[in-house]
Every structure is written in C-alpha cells, then in structure tokens.
Amino acid sequence: MEKAVFAFQIDGTPVECKVFGHGHINYTLRVKTDTGAEYVLQQINKYVFKDPVRLMENVGSVTAYLRERVSDPRAALHFLPTKDGKFYHMDEQGQFWRMYDFVGGFCLDTPESDEDFYQSALAFGRFQEMLSQFPAETLYETIPEFHNTTYRYGTFRHTLAADPWGRAEGVKADIDFILAREEEGGTLQRMRESGELPLRVTHNDTKLNNVLLDKKTRKSLCVLDLDTVMPGLSLYDFGDSIRFGAATAEEDERDTSKMGLDLHLFEIYTKGYMEACPSLTQREIDMMPMGAKILTLELAMRFLTDYIDGDRYFRVNYPEHNLVRARAQMKLVADMECKWDEMHRIVDKVAKEVRH
Ligand code: GN1
Ligand code: MG
Description:
Layout lengths: L13 E6 L7 E7 L4 E6 L8 H16 L21 E2 L5 E6 L12 H17 L18 H14 L9 H8 L2 H4 L1 H8 L5 E3 L8 E3 L6 E4 L6 E3 L1 H12 L17 H14 L5 H5 L1 H21 L12 H18 L1 H16 L1
Antiparallel strand pairs: 1-2, 2-3, 3-5, 4-5, 6-9, 7-8
Helix pairs in contact: 2-7, 2-8, 3-10, 7-8, 7-10, 8-12, 10-11
The structure holds 2-acetamido-2-deoxy-1-O-phosphono-alpha-D-glucopyranose (GN1) and magnesium ion (MG).
2-acetamido-2-deoxy-1-O-phosphono-alpha-D-glucopyranose binds next to loops.
C-alpha cells in the first residue's frame, strides 16, 4: 500500500492498491477500501510540472467550480482533501500526490465510430461552456507560452541559428514551409492580445483519451487530465482536437500521401463543439478553420524545432521520428489549405443549423 493514501480523507480502510491506466506522465494507482469506495491516487510528475502546488490550485479551483454546475456528480472530478485540508499531499521524498473519486467509465485512444468523436466534441464543448464565466486570468500557466505561436516562431529561429547538430541544411524545404507561414501563424496570438478573441479557460490536451465515457450509454461523462488547464483561447482546444482526431492518418505517419483532413469528421466535431458551447462568439466561430490550421502548423514547427535541436523534448522511437512527425503535420496543413473554402463552408453551415 502506498503510504500517501493515508494522508487523505478516504471512506473506510484501504484494502487494495493497483497501478491504473497507461498515462506516460503521472504515476497512477487505483485504490479500493473495505466500504467498497474506490479512488484514483496519482503522483504528479515533477519533471514536467515544475510547480505542483500551483498546478493543484488550478485543478482544485476549476473542479470546484465545475461541481457546482453539473447535475451528474460523475461529470466533474472530485478531489479528496487531505487530513489537513489541502488538495495535495507532499511526502517525505518531496513527491506530490492527489486523490479523486473513481466513478467508473472508460476511455478510448481512437474513436470506434463517428458518435465517439461527436461525444468527445460535446465533452470539450461543455467543459468550455461551463467555464465561460470563470476568471481565466486567475489561473497559473503550468507551461508558459504553451500555444503562443509567435513565441514558438522565436524559439524556432533561435534553434535554426544555433543548429547544434548541423541538421538544418538537410531540411531546407521543411524550414521554408514553416517560415512561409509565420505571418499567418501569429494570427491567434495577435487576436488574443487585442482582445478580439476572449480569454477562456482551456484544457490544452483535447484528445479523445482524455474523455471519460459511460460504460452503458457510451456518452461522454467528463473531461480528464486537467494538468494543462490554463488561460487560453477556445481555438486551441478546438484546433488541437481537429489536428489529432480529424486527420486521415496517425500523427507520425511516414507516408505523407495518407495524411489529410477528413472533412466529415471535421463537420462532426464542429457540430458537437458548437452545440455544447453556445457562448462561442461569432469571431471564434469564423476563426475555427484558422484554429485548426495554426494548431497543426505550430505542432509541425515544435516537432521540426526539436529535430533540429537534437530531440530533447519529445520522446522519439527512432532517429528521424520528429522529422517524420513534422512532415506529417505539414502535410495536414497543406491539405487544410486545399480544403480551406470547404472548411469555411462547413463551419458556416453548422453554425446556421446549430444557432438558429
Ligand atoms: C504532447 O504527451 P502528450 O501526448 O500528452 C504535448 C502536446 C502535443 C502532443 C503531440 C505538454 O502531449 O502539446 O500536442 O504531445 N504536450 C506537451 O503528440 O508538450
Ligand atoms: Mg496528456
């Protein structure tokens, strides 16, 4: 039994404690007690998240706020206080732990049907909507400048200039592709700074496997993994969902001819997101295709930066992995450019259906 369990106000005496899920960042356990209560106990990864106390303040205030707004208690995570009334426990080794109620349900890595993808759109859209009045600026940035594409361009240029492994020469065409879109790539950041797009609470890791689905109904219950919840733009969440979930190939597909945007999935997600998030402004809606494109471009640039920098940030499975990832993302950007008018047409059509 992990000693950390005893720091929390649990119901009953713990009788079982097993490794749970397949997260790559935090260490996660499932705990059962003699009263039948079940919990998730997690150790927060301190290498990735430098300030677990402030991270937990974010998570604590956001979940407390959500809990007041949901009817099904499973629809918002419930963190247990420790015996001294905090949302986290620091052990003798300086490791941070947290604990929340386990409410059942399951997660998917890839959608098995259109409906699964639609359910993820509803979940992230509802998350956005429920938090639309939350004072986003009070949240701590767990990873500063995370989706500041302009800042990411600065890092890219800096890395190009340093070129520590002499890799830039061999990827000139890729570099040119990224640099040719620098002006456009800064669009969301400029609109954030001018206030044209509202600052919101964003999730920033809007993949399907961060949505908890009900075992019986297969409907989405709740959004998980709140570590990267930060102040941001709705288009970060929307864009990253499209980049990941509406692509025709895996994020690191070597055969770029297989990579493109699936317009049908794009429409499904757009519909679910708009239905669940009526507070989206007209400007946010107009910029949805741009959100998808910039988030994809930004990740292509992050992968290419890391390749040139010698693969320090993203874990790679083979030497060219980051370059392969970057090229797959660039192909997706290029395909969005080909389908640009169609993307706008879909957004307009869905907006008319959903909003009138
Ligand atoms: C990282 O590790 P994972 O899959 O949760 C990255 C995301 C990228 C994603 C690409 C904190 O997320 O921004 O979109 O890889 N997360 C961080 O697969 O950098
Ligand atoms: Mg994650």
